[in-house]
């Protein structure tokens, strides 16, 4: 399918109900309001066309941008393109999911996560923390920088409640990821989670709730799933 055909198909798949849901979450025009499940059905038409995926993201249309993230091969994307994607990720779904997940599976995961986490731009910082969290979920523990992760846990412990709105959300998510995926640091993550308690995030006109990290990690422990890695973090 061509770019024009994909965009036409996205428009056909969109609905006013889904548009309103995305609007409540913070999306901006242009977008059609396509459900994630329907986007996944189009991946096969984009997956082997790197340039098409890049063009879809550059369209600025949310649905097309998300489809690009589902379709692109993370090993073929350049660091410069990922940096450009992060700059264009104007709301949390693009930052926390599309950019972060693709970057986490790229060759530049840690390099860009470290760079972005320090950014004064809220959504770029969100990209950074979410990239690192996703990286933890797919990377064997023996390849992780345990000392660095401990330092980041301490940073969350000391600063999360004073951080910017959506950064608070992904910092909390980082603690969850450490507790869930890094066996050696599960206990330390639990201690940090207990210390920070409930993290308050303005989720707009939605019913979304911020997970309480300590409770979430306990549930994973009860299921005996601590340290179980994912094959892919792109979803």
From TrEMBL:
SUPFAM superfamilies assigned: ARM repeat (SSF48371)
One matching Pfam family, short form? DNA_alkylation
Q: This protein's superkingdom?
A: Bacteria
Q: What CDD domains does the record tag this protein with?
A: AlkD_like
Report the Gene3D superfamilies cross-referenced here: 1.25.10.90
Matching entries from InterPro entries are given as: ARM-type_fold, DNA_alkylation
Q: What is this protein called?
A: DNA alkylation repair protein
């Amino acid at each position: 399918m061509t770019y024009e055909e994909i965009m036409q198909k996205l428009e056909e798949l969109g609905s006013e109900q889904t548009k309103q849901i995305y609007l409540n979450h913070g999306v901006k025009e242009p977008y059609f309001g396509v459900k994630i499940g329907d986007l996944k059905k189009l991946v096969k038409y984009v997956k082997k066309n790197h340039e098409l995926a890049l063009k879809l993201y550059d369209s600025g249309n949310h649905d097309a941008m998300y489809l690009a993230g589902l379709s692109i091969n993370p090993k073929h994307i350049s660091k410069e393109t990922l940096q450009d994607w992060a700059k264009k990720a104007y709301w949390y779904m693009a930052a926390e999911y599309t950019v972060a997940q693709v970057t986490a599976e790229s060759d530049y995961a840690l390099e860009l996560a470290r760079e972005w986490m320090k950014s004064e731009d809220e959504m770029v910082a969100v990209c950074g923390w979410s990239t690192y969290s996703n990286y933890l979920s797919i990377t064997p523990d023996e390849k992780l920088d345990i000392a660095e992760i401990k330092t980041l846990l301490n940073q969350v412990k000391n600063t999360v409640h004073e951080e910017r709105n959506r950064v608070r959300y992904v910092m909390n998510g980082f603690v969850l990821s450490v507790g869930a995926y890094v066996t050696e640091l599960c206990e330390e993550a639990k201690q940090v989670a207990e210390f920070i308690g409930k993290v308050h995030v303005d989720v707009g006109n939605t019913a979304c709730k911020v997970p309480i990290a300590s409770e979430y990690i306990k549930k994973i422990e009860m299921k005996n799933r601590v340290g179980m890695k994912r094959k892919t973090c792109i979803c």
